[in-house]
Amino acid sequence: MTALLEISGLRVSYPGVDEPVEVVHGVDLVVPQGRKVALVGESGSGKSVTARSVLQLDPDATIAGSIRLGGQELVGAAPKIVRGIRGSGAGLVFQDPLTSLNPVMRIGWQIMQPLVIRGVSKKEARERGIALLDRLGVVNAAARFDDYPHQFSGGMRQRVVIAIAIIAEPALLIADEPTTALDVQVQAQVLELLHEVADERGMGVLLITHDLAIVAGFADDVVVMRHGEVVESAPVDELFAAPKHPYTRGLLGAIPRLDSDPSVRLTSVADYVDTFETVDDEPAAPAAENGAAR
Fold it and tell me: pTM here?
């Protein structure tokens, strides 16, 4: 498979009181063309920092290593090159659709902007924006195109955010916790929508999440991060069936099940990590017993 996104030896630091603080430590990650890769881990593990580094969205961050998108090296690239890949090379869906949208701008103009700034006429951008909203399931898209974000529900706002991310037809879609603020039914709708759009357009997808139930039904491959490092990566079926790293076992073992005995304490991630100091060959029975089935 052709590698669309290649991250190698990525290190990200932020200014500290006395010296820079490194929060991502030598991450390696590949998103092949047309594949959906989930980047998982607890809050603070470095998932979002890694993803945002692709588009270099944090001006205070110092990025070292290599990030290649479609063969173009982005670390150390001129600002003009990085700006050029935002939207057309890689689109980004943020986790909170309400704060991702400008509340005083009509949603239609926000959808059109990625095209207009690339020289597409406003008329054509509007037509393409309306057609895309209609494709994404917004009823009466032409009339709603001039509404404001507060006039949309959470699920509809997320569809607007997805439209902004993909209207310039990027090769890579980065979805950073895209369903966190949504209820379960709307979560399923948004994920199905992302799945369909990715397959139709042949996009690579990097999904950032802490929800392994979502990963099981969406991703092709999984990369697990802890404390700013990658601890395990594998195809999704392989990882759920036989997780190798204690931390991965802990994440799977901590998932509650409907058939669990409510009187039995859930296994915590710490139970696994504290028990196994190094990766070993013990069977993955705890994950199979307590984890989610795909």
Answer: 0.86
State how far the Cα of 119 lies from the Cα of 116, in Å rounded to an integer.
5
From the list 203, 143, 266, 145, the residue with the least C-alpha distance to 4 is 203
Under a CB-based contact definition with an 8 Å cutoff, are residues 129 and 114 in contact? no
Query: Which of the 8 DSSP states describes residue 233?
Result: E
Closest to 285 in 3D by CA, of 247, 242, 256, 255: 242
Angle at 101 between CA 201 and CA 163, to 5 degrees: 15
Count helices and strands in the chain by DSSP H and E runs: 13, 10
**How far apart, in whole angstroms, are the C-alpha atoms of residue 151 and residue 144?**
9
pLDDT tens column, 58-91: 999 999 999 999 999 999 999 999 988 988 899 9
DSSP per residue over 4-26, as a string? EEEEEEEEEEE--SSS-EEEEEE
Beta strand 221-226 with 229-235: parallel, antiparallel or unpaired? antiparallel
Measure the CA–CA gap between 134 and 150, rounded to whole angstroms: 19
Longest pairwise C-alpha distance within the chain = 63
Q: Give percent helix, percent strand, percent coil of the chain, each to the nearest 5.
A: 40, 25, 35
d(CA 193, CA 195): 5
Q: Is 93 helix (H, G, I), strand (E, B) or coil?
A: strand
3-state secondary structure of 228: coil
Q: Which two tokens stand for residue 211?
A: 């929800």
Rounded-to-integer distance, Cα 264 and Cα 277, Å = 25
Nearest to 220 by CA among 233, 232, 201: 233
pLDDT tens by residue, 112-160 = 999 999 899 999 999 999 999 998 888 899 999 999 999 998 888 988 9
**Which two tokens mark 187?**
């979560």
Q: Which domains occur in the chain, in start order?
A: 3-241 (3.40.50.300)
